[in-house]
């Protein structure tokens, strides 16, 4: 899976996620990538793109859960994303991670498994790429 | 129009095995990620939309064989590649998604075509491919999406299953 989230200079958010899946997956199997609210979501609070064990991301509505925690609990992007990846997905065999951004341009990149590839950039800062 | 812009990307999970992560592959992976960041941030820097930025960034990632989307997509157990993608615009909650189709060079553009050229959110299979064709998107043959690394991973996975084993390698557990 690959994905991107962005906050533009107007404070508008967007998310995009594309094609992944387990090697040797069953033909016709669809993971969380195209499921809005699971692997991909953008609203006026945050934008989220996930990568990982898709079935678990779907069952727990991972991306929507982050937005809901921010909207209703007032959590920061970091806190909400961290909670979902480490305390919702991980205990339920939901290995993987996500990238997320909020309307203030804050970025969160949590993951709970190896083999992760990340990059981020903010206006006025140098771009960062990383492999774990 | 003075707010901070931000862009974050991911190249998936487990698409490159640790044992195969040579300095050359590591350098190529960083370069691939940097190209995607540049594609998206160029748009944001000029005041463009987050929607255009994520589309451009994901296209760059899809074009990169090191990551398992589009070019280098994972194989199903039947030895075929199926593509999924979704895009969502937070300002108005427009969304487009495609699943279970094959052929568009950039599946994310097919998802965006569903969002912009249809009243629907998700389309699957041949109907999704038709919307992509009608939007004038380029399609590719199977050879374009083939990478030896993904094929080797499939053969290894099928061999493990035949022996009743599972792999702890993230590369064969999820994308």
In short:
The complex is a heterodimer of chains A (132) and B (175). By secondary structure, chain A is an alpha+beta fold.
Please, could you describe this protein's structure?
The complex is a heterodimer of chains A (132) and B (175). In chain A, the strands form 3 sheets. A 4-stranded antiparallel β-sheet of chain A has the order 3-4-5-6. Chain A has a two-stranded antiparallel sheet with strand order 1-2. With 132 residues, chain A is an alpha+beta fold. The model of chain A has no long low-confidence stretch (mean pLDDT 96). Chain A is globular, with a radius of gyration of 14 Å. Chain A has helices spanning 54-59, 62-73, 77-89; strands at residues 2-7, 13-18, 40-42, 46-52, 96-102, 107-108, 116-122, 128-131. Chain A is 23% helix and 32% strand. Chain B is built from 7 helices and 4 strands. Chain B has a 3-stranded mixed β-sheet. In chain B, β2 (83-89) and β3 form a beta hairpin. In chain B, α1 runs antiparallel to α2, α2 (50-62) runs antiparallel to α3 (107-117) and α3 packs across α4. Classes of the chains: A alpha+beta (132), B alpha+beta (175).
Which helices and strands appear, and what pairs or packs with what?
The complex is a heterodimer of chains A (132) and B (175).
Chain A: E1 2-7, E2 13-18, E3 40-42, E4 46-52, H1 54-59, H2 62-73, H3 77-89, E5 96-102, E6 107-108, E7 116-122, E8 128-131
Antiparallel strand pairs in A: 1-2, 3-4, 4-5, 5-6, 7-8
Helix pairs in contact in A: 2-3
Chain B: E1 6-13, H1 23-45, H2 50-62, E2 83-89, E3 94-101, H3 107-117, E4 122-124, H4 125-134, H5 142-145, H6 148-162, H7 170-173
Parallel strand pairs in B: 3-4
Antiparallel strand pairs in B: 2-3
Structural descriptors:
heterodimer; A: 132 residues; alpha+beta; four-stranded antiparallel sheet; two-stranded antiparallel sheet; 8 strands; globular; B: 175 residues; three-stranded mixed sheet; 7 helices; 4 strands; 46% helix; 15% strand
